[in-house]
Amino acid sequence: MKKFKVLMALVMAVVVSLLAACGDEKTSSEGESSKESGEKVTLNLWHFDPGTREQVYLKAIERFEKEHPNVTVKPLLIPNDKYKQRLVVAMAGKNAPDVFATWGGGYLQEFADSGKLVDLTNEDIDYSRFVDVALKNSTYDDKVYGLPLGIATYQFFYNKEIFKNNGIEVPKTYNEFLAAAETLKKADVYPIALANQPQWPGAFYLMYLADRIGGEEVFQKAYNRDGGSFADEAYVKAGEMIQDLVDRDAFNPGFNGLPYDAGSARQMMYTNKAAMMLMTSGFVNNVRDEFPEFEDKMGVFQFPALEDGKGDPTNISAGVSPVWSISKSSKQQELALELINELTSVETGTDYADMSGTPVAIKGVEPKDEYVKTFTNWINDANSIQFPYDQTLSPELAQLHKETTFKLFGKTMTPQEAADAMEKKAAELEKK
Amino acid sequence: MKAAAEVSKLPIIDITTVKRKEKRKQTLAILSFMFLALFVYTLFILYPILSTFIYSFHEWNGIEAEKAFVGFANYSELFSDPTFWQSLKNNFYLVGVSVFVQIPLGLMMALVLNSKIKGQRLLSVIFFLPYLMSTVAVGLLWVFMFDPTNGPINMALNAIGVESINWLAESPSALIAILIVMAWQFAPFYMILFKAALVGIPEELYEAAGMDGANDIQKFFYVTLPSLIPMLISSSVLAVVGSLKTFDLFYVMSGSGAGTSTSILGTFMYEETFVNFRMGYGSTIAAMMFVIALISVVIIQVIDSIQKRKRGIS
Predict the structure, then answer these.
(1) Inter-chain CB proximity A258 and B62 less than 8 Å
(2) Which CATH number fits domain B82-313: 3.40.50.1820, 1.10.3720.10, 3.90.550.10, 3.90.420.10?
(3) ipTM of the complex, rounded to two decimals
(4) Has the keyword Manganese been applied to this entry (chain A) (predicted)?
């Protein structure tokens, strides 16, 4: 028996060494083949947007391929949640896509800090065509690592018909907003639709409330660690206001258990069961795909101003997506650069604005769509644009932010506890 | 190469009898037959397990080439992390439900199918259907079933005068809801195992018991159940290991939800590794999952062998 074990161990050793040999061989052959091939070239492109947005990318790829007949671009659509996992694994190994989309912010920074991205700062890119703040979202230490395409603004969508039938005006201030919620409740309508299982829809409320209470400096100071704090009273107050909304039954019941992608919150909007929803501009696209009839009675308004708040009511929250980057392991970096230039060209931007209901980070695009026009005006008039915390903060802190806000909504955490937990983690990460 | 040389060196040390030589030959023959399987096993099972343990001693974000060795720091952090204990607790509930709900339920369904009732075929299809569906589809289906406003479950509760429950939104109903779905989906798996085992029980045993005047209940406890013990043991091993590894159903029904009432080791590991960029810490969680599963299986096997010895003696 003992000998058997020894033999087993030896066989194992052989197997492992064989494996190692296999691995080496593969990589060396790959390197050679790409050096030789001057003619047929394949670029891999990964993204996470289905539907009309994908169509926009495919059209841009088509234009690119026409200009470069020897190049084939292989786009790969990976759904949202799996995307992060696949990308991390691919970037760690040797099979990273040449060009890929992210949301910029703290997530992309991980890759940049790990030296996995091509520094685009001094490359042949006309930076004047981008909206400055959007570009900042993928700029770390004054180096640009990604080119932004869309800016999805966050605002309330509402049902005009329900508002009209109950004599409700679009609320300009938070008190009007609360009064509207009361009226709607009496009319047996859920004032606000919320599907908070993925945790980001609820996080919009914390972000907006903190901004309206204390202005954009609250986040910026806490984020940059210059005198600010995530335990700032603005955050505690925002948490209290969220729980106040929960106590007023402003949301549909069971919101913390509803997955957003499955559509239960949108369904409530479509079927007149709920009157308002704080959502990204991507909702316009959802409506057109899922229930076009709803567009006739759909309206939009910005997060209401707070009567005693310091925040500028023109401040708007928005997420930049997609941000195109090039991985350092790409063997066709020059072509990849041209590809991302095409993916953020005025032409692509125009398609994106017209087809996806979302404004773009590219100047010189004249949107035809009414919603996009409105959103674009809001962006242009905004005193400051707040990017979502979960994309800006480092991944770990971003996760905690979503988790604590989720617990605020579920009332399993007090506002003070949530704010303290955030500040504790932020301080901890700062030390590292 | 080196290994082969050592293999040939080995027997020189103790060639004493022909018998040994033959035995060696035999071992080699066995090994050569096993080689392919062993190769696959090493590549896909042993090697990843080993690397998991190696990663668990490092601080690594999963993308950088550099890993910093931190010794047991990840482990000490894990043991003081409340999310870990919360997840572990939930995993134990899961194990409990798997062993004490799914297995008996599977056994009951197998017994129903084994008895001579009408519509047996239809029933076997109905019983087995949940197991055939993809877990993601099952998860979504039940999310709609548990919908707080339009869900059939709450509507049924309302019909009998019970107030609506916000199933997936609150603690502990969220965990209970997911456990119900787990039992619903996986009980048929054990049903199939038991059905196969039931067929293997010799008819003579029942006849003999019948002649001794045993009624149906006595037949079950003195013939059926003892004959099923080996299958019960292997089912429990599968149930324990399977429920420690669970991920997909929880992920679909409750999001990754770390730190919340439905966090389990699988989702906790996923989140630390792929969302928080902490490959090292995630590997530590995975390593702990492996150790816990190993310990549980060893315990079950030990109990089994003690039982066997007892029965052998008496």
Answers:
(1) no
(2) 1.10.3720.10
(3) 0.80
(4) no
